[in-house]
Each structure stands twice: as structure tokens, then as C-alpha cells.
Write a structure and sequence with these properties.
2 copies of one chain form a homodimer.
Chain A: E1 3-9, H1 11-14, H2 22-32, E2 36-43, H3 47-60, E3 63-67, H4 78-85, E4 91-93, H5 95-107, H6 114-117, E5 121-123, E6 127-129, E7 138-143, H7 145-148, E8 152-157, H8 161-178, E9 184-191, H9 196-202, H10 204-208, E10 214-221, E11 225-233, H11 238-255, E12 259-261, H12 267-278, E13 282-286, H13 292-298, E14 307-313, H14 316-321, H15 327-333, H16 338-352, E15 356-362, E16 377-384, E17 387-394, H17 399-422
Parallel strand pairs in A: 1-2, 1-3, 3-8, 13-14, 13-15
Antiparallel strand pairs in A: 4-5, 6-7, 7-8, 9-11, 9-12, 10-11, 15-16, 16-17
Helix pairs in contact in A: 2-8, 3-4, 12-17
Chain lengths: ~425, ~425
């Protein structure tokens, strides 16, 4: 299998000023075409570090993709280091890139300075792929086996994310035409409501019985639940595809409605898809989640098709006066109760006229809990024309994390309710 | 200077399914305490890769911080690899971590399984720092010079970001007590409403005149604005402190009310502090921000002291029926208008009885814009007993980023209004 390494150059990443998103983007694209990324590396703007580390990567991997360090300012020294690494003895000017630089500067109403023109100048041992979105070209260095012990190729990309992304297709094509790439097959399953360890126990028998070629990964996320990923490296045929699909069918049987999607997805997307399909509308009443459920729902483009709105009732007076929760419920059962969650869900449906609604009331902390109502407790209510149901959950995290878990649990409870009603 | 390397373990990063944010967070903290991060590395869940790469890092750096690969499931093999690397011959159970695991499971209403108990079991050559936020403990391996050619320490942290962050302070303390770190003095100033490049231009003269020992960094964040950090490396004395404070005073003069805090802070914290101090209450009416403003405000512990609640009016009917926006305004001026933002702000104040309110209405995209009301336009209204004011902003980002900018701009507009009223 073709192996690749992705290297990021720049002090700004090492001091934590910038989060590197290029590497993740590039590795996804490489994986999809069957190139296995075995390492990612971030190093500083230091000549020795660059030459030492890249030499090592070129000895270990077939393909080394370098991003960053190509800016016009003095602290960017990648190009000089690559010239040395490749044994280039001179620089050559790339006419196509120079033209692009001229156009970019004209568009911005700027004159071409020496510092700009130098961007089109590259070590003579490299091939150039013009960068249409920026001033620094992509450089391709091909090394024969004698140099680092294996035939290897180094691609140097600009660090600006949209330029790196823009150049990626040309690089993938170049890899395709120079290497025999293998295919990697992936399937993703989204689950919610079962913790990673409990899920592992539940799936132990199935996992044991998996064909050896299938690799399984558990990827937990507070807002998405546990994502399961099945992969076959070097998957060549439709046989491998159907082998994965067969395992997905078994997973479905074991996990039932704990699965909310058979592709990489979110709960809010799934809820939106279900509502759109059924032609139903939704509203939300939030206490402890403080607006996060509404915020998640409206993060989905097109959510205005099914989403009417919400009330965040932080104060008791808003629960009573806006949502119409009777003070009798609050004095008898308290604001953190099944009764209050149900009344809030019914109140927001009445107020907005939506088909479905979901409500939360609980204690995110810190402080304020009691034995009966501990911090981390949330009551969820879901109301629809067929009636109102409630459920409670208990989490033990910090405030922000509790709010996230409350919101995701509420979306999942709503999702299951809509699914069960649509199936009837 | 003490040198460190940060290593992330996990296939999910190499295949691009997850963006590594831990490394950036950890490196910022290490830099702040005067430890220089020279490399970051991501490798897969592969025994040989783990042992080979970590051995090399331990030979090159004083401190190696490893995150990830400690989950309870089979694909996580970091612990076994670290046992081998450290020459451990057995495992020992850490009683403190076992107790934490028990508590976490009890809180979730779960029984302790073997797979959970194993999380408390660590290679006998390591010291344990209990992880209070999760099940996998932090492991500390100390290597004498003979082993890798330099005295080095390896810290293994869980990969879940909030657990890694939570464990970080203990690790920094351990580094402090074992290494001679240099002191770095920092001051932070929070600004909002001026883009990074415009800010740099505005501050050019001041920046030129800064004493050479003062290092300035611009740290932009969509929800917080641009954070300015002034640092003196190796700052030893009170003189250095007063030199920094003098520069802060000059900054205050140049930037005026674009500064919302003289310490690392958020807009929602600042608004909360102002309201608490004045004994005033707040409510929110959101259209395009969809709940995010309310969610930000309630992310602050104790926000129920001043926050009453919100209405998210995604549908026009909710604007009219719940917030009482007159249909005359909507038909004449449209929902994205100064008039509608003002009416929403007044409507939510009427509904909740709050002293202050803030409202947003705009277009987050994608699609749906016009020449008059382009995608990225937001109208903000702020209402208080002294009257209602509105303001508009235009951003050019994707949906999520537009919503964030809208929400932060609204909080900042509210913040300035409260400040100006309190100063009268």
C-alpha cells in the first residue's frame, strides 16, 4: 500500500496560535484514493529541522506532502531548505505562476514588488503545479531510490487552507498517474445513548467474529454519540463492499434504534431529515440547555422549512407567563420534574402551533443540586398530536459538557419518538 | 530552554476524521510556562509505530506529551506499547483512579465491568496522576539518561479534549517541580469589532515604539474578537510587570471601548458581570442566530441571576404572535430590517419584563439573499428603559461562521450600550 506522510511547517502551529486543519483535509482525500497516511508532523521554521525531518519522512514514505512555510516574509524558509534537500543548484522562474501573481496583484490594485516576483522562482530540480488561488506555486520533487532508499515524491503546498485545498486535486491526479494506488473502503454508523465501553461490551461477540480484514474504530463525541467506523484496507472488489454491508446489517440487528444514521451524520441533521420527509414542524422549550438545542437545529441549512422557533425559559416567570406552565405544577413537582418538562413541551406547541416539540428542564451546575434533584439531572419532554412523553437522564460533567449532553439526549429522544410515529 | 514534543495517537486523526485540537491547546500552555514545543506528531494505533516514534522523541526532547489511544476498546493500544517502552514487567491497579471510575459509573447508573476496571490498571514503571474527569488516568514515565541519551519524561493523557484539558494543570505542575522553566510574563487585552489587519494598522505606531523585550501577538477568535497578548520572556522583576502595565494603559487610550476586558475573557462573561453589578436583568429575541446568543449567555455559571430567557422566532408567525411584532412592520420593512430588530427587542422585554434585551434578525445563508438584504447581513436591536437602538453588520462567511459573528456582534453591541448607560 502506498504510504504517505503529511508535514506542516510553521512556528504559528507549534506555539498553538493556529490549529492545523490542512492535514486532516489532505489525509481524508488521500485515504479516499487508497493512500495510507502513516504519520503527520508539525515542525518549525528552522532549516535544520526541515531538512532533517523531511529526509527521514522521504526514507519512510512513498509520498510526503508538505504544507506551509512558503510565504513571502523572512520567517518562511521552506523553499531554500527544499532547494538544498533536492540538490538544486539554481532557481528558475515559472512563467505560468508569474502570470497568476500579476493577475492577483492587479485585482487588488497593487504593483508587483521584487518580493512578489520571487514567489514564482523555484529550485531547478522541481516541477511546478501552478497555484491559481495564491502566489506560491506547488512544487513537486521526485527522488530516485538511491537518494533516500526508496523512490519517493515530495509535494510542497502553500499553508493557507483554501489554497492548499484548491491545489489538492492536481496533486491527487499527479499521484494517480505516478503510483498504483489501492482502495480503502469505509462505512460509518452513528449511534447515540450507549457509552463507548458499554457499546464495546455489547458488540464484543460481533467484533470477535469480524473477518480479519475489517478494522473497527470507536469514535465518541459529546454531541454526536459514538461513531463506529468499519474499514477494509486494500479493499478491491464489490465483494469487500458487500462484506462491509453484511456487517452493517448485523450491527443494525444488535443495536436497533440506538443507530440514528448509517453515514457520518449529526442528530440535528437526522431530526431535520425525518421532519422534512414527514412534512411536520418543530418547536423547542429550553430551560437548562439555554438555547443550545435551538442553536443546533438552526445550524442545519434549510432548517426554516420545519423549525418554527423556541422559548428559553430560564426564569420561572417565563415558564409560567410565556409557556403557560401552571404554578400548581411548579409548586407541587418543582421545575426539574417530568410534569414540568411535559407542560413546557405542550406549552411551546400551543404557542407556536408546531406538530412536534421537545423541552428540557434540569440542573447543569455547578452547585444548586439536592438529593432528589442532583446536578447533572435533566428531564426531557416530547409532545406531538399523539401525546406527550418524558424521560430523564443523569450526567456528571462540568456545566458546558452537561449542557451538551442534555441537548444531544433531548434531540435523540425526539428522534426516536418521530421515528416510532412515522413507522406506525 | 526545555524542549517538548507533542504526540497524538489514533487512526481517526490520520484518516482525517478528527481534527487534533489538543496539541494546539497543550502547546499554548507549555509556551506560556516557557517550555518550547519543537515538534508535533500524529501516529496511528500501531504498536511498532508508537514505540519507534516515541523512542525517537524521547531522545530528542526533554518532555514528550502523548494524547489519545487510551480508550477501553481494543483498537486503543497505547498503554501496552508504553509498558513495553518503559520496560514494565507487570501492571498495577491505581486505587484513586479506580475510585473515580466507580463514581463515574455509579453516577451514570452503570455497573463496573472488567473493561472499566482495566482502565485503572497501569504499567508498574509509571506514576499515576488521577484523571478526575474520565476513566483513563494520566501516566508519567521518567527515563534516566542511559535509556534514550537524555533525561526525559513522557506524559500520557487521554485523547478526549475536555479530559486532556482538565489534566493539563497537573502536568504543568509536575513539569514545574522537575524542570527549571523560565518565567514568562503575560498580559491579555480583549478587543471586539476591529479586524486583525485593521487593528495591526491602527496599532502600528504603538507597536513600533514597544520596548524590544515585549513580544506582541494577535490572536483572533470568531466569538471573542481579537485577543492581544503582550509577553516578556524571562521576565523576572516587578519592573517588567509595570512596563507591561504602562503599555496596557497606552493601548486603552488608542482602542477605547473596542476593549471589553483587560484579561482573557469572553463577551458573554463581560455582559454578565456588567448586569450583575448594575442589578439589571436581560432577555433575548433571536431570529438568524437561532439560539446561539442565549446559549452563550447561559454557558456562564450563575447566569440565572440576571438572565430571564429568550424567544427564537424562526417563523414569521412566532415573531408576530409571540413577540408581538406588528405585521405592518414586516410587510413594510421586511423581517430583515432595523424596524423588525427594534420591535423584536421591545417585544421580548414586554414579554419577560427584563431591563435589557437584545435581538437579531438577518440572513446566515446559504442562499436567500437579495441586493437589498444580502446573505451575511444582520440587524441588531438593543432595548432598555431609556429606549431602543439598532445597528447592522455585514459578514461574508459560511452559515455557521456568520451565525457566530452575528451572535458575537450582538453581544458586543449590548455590552457597549450597558457600559454607556452605567457610566451616565
Amino acid at each position: 500500500m502506498i504510504q504517505a506522510s503529511i508535514c506542516t511547517i510553521g512556528d504559528e502551529i507549534l506555539i498553538g496560535q493556529i490549529v492545523d486543519t490542512n492535514s486532516s483535509h489532505i489525509s481524508r482525500a488521500l485515504n479516499d484514493m487508497g493512500v495510507r497516511v502513516t504519520r503527520m508532523l508539525s515542525i518549525g521554521d528552522d532549516r535544520n529541522e526541515i531538512i532533517g525531518n523531511l529526509s527521514r519522512e522521504l526514507a519512510l514514505c512513498d509520498i510526503v506532502i508538505v504544507t506551509g512555510g512558503l510565504g513571502p516574509t523572512k520567517d518562511d524558509i521552506t523553499k531554500a531548505a527544499l532547494a538544498e534537500l533536492s540538490g538544486s543548484t539554481a532557481y528558475k522562474e515559472d512563467a505560468r505562476q508569474l502570470e497568476i501573481i500579476g493577475r492577483i496583484l492587479r485585482d487588488r490594485g497593487l504593483d508587483m514588488l521584487d518580493i512578489n516576483r520571487q514567489q514564482a522562482s523555484v529550485p531547478d530540480k522541481c516541477e511546478v503545479i501552478p497555484n491559481r488561488l495564491g502566489t506560491a506555486p506547488v512544487m513537486v520533487f521526485r527522488f530516485e531510490k538511491e537518494r533516500f532508499g526508496r523512490r519517493s515524491t515530495l509535494y510542497s503546498l502553500p499553508g493557507v487552507p483554501f489554497e492548499a485545498t484548491g491545489a489538492l486535486n492536481d496533486i491527487l491526479e499527479d499521484i494517480h498517474s505516478h503510483y498504483l494506488t489501492e482502495r480503502i473502503l469505509h462505512r460509518t454508523v452513528m449511534t447515540y445513548g450507549i457509552a463507548e465501553s458499554a457499546l464495546a461490551k455489547k458488540l464484543a461477540g460481533w467484533e470477535e467474529s469480524l473477518p480479519e480484514s475489517i478494522h473497527l474504530a470507536y469514535l465518541p463525541d459529546p454531541l454526536k454519540g459514538v461513531r463506529l467506523r468499519l474499514s477494509i484496507y486494500g479493499g478491491t472488489s464489490t465483494d469487500d463492499g458487500s462484506m462491509l454491508d453484511e456487517q452493517l446489517a448485523r450491527l443494525r440487528q444488535i443495536l436497533g434504534d440506538s443507530i440514528y444514521s448509517m453515514q457520518d451524520d449529526t442528530l440535528q441533521n437526522t431530526v431535520g431529515r425525518l421532519l422534512k420527509k414527514a412534512g411536520k414542524t418543530l418547536s423547542v422549550a429550553e430551560s437548562c440547555t439555554g438555547g443550545m438545542i435551538s442553536s443546533l437545529i438552526t445550524s442545519v441549512p434549510g432548517s426554516s422549512e420545519y423549525y418554527l422557533g423556541s422559548v428559553t425559559s430560564y426564569a420561572v416567570s417565563v415558564k409560567e407567563n410565556v409557556l403557560g406552565v401552571e404554578d400548581d405544577i411548579i409548586s407541587r413537582a418543582g421545575v426539574v420534574s417530568s410534569e414540568c418538562a411535559a407542560a413546557m413541551a405542550e406549552g411551546i406547541r400551543r404557542l407556536t402551533g408546531s406538530d412536534y416539540s421537545v423541552a428540557t428542564t434540569g440542573l447543569a451546575g455547578p452547585g444548586g443540586g439536592s438529593d432528589k434533584n442532583p446536578v447533572g439531572l435533566v428531564w426531557i419532554g416530547v409532545s406531538s398530536p399523539t401525546g406527550t412523553v418524558t424521560s430523564s437522564r443523569l450526567f456528571k460533567n462540568d456545566r458546558i459538557r452537561n449542557i451538551e449532553r442534555f441537548a444531544a439526549s433531548a434531540l435523540d429522544f425526539l428522534r426516536k419518538r418521530i421515528e416510532s410515529e412515522l413507522n406506525h
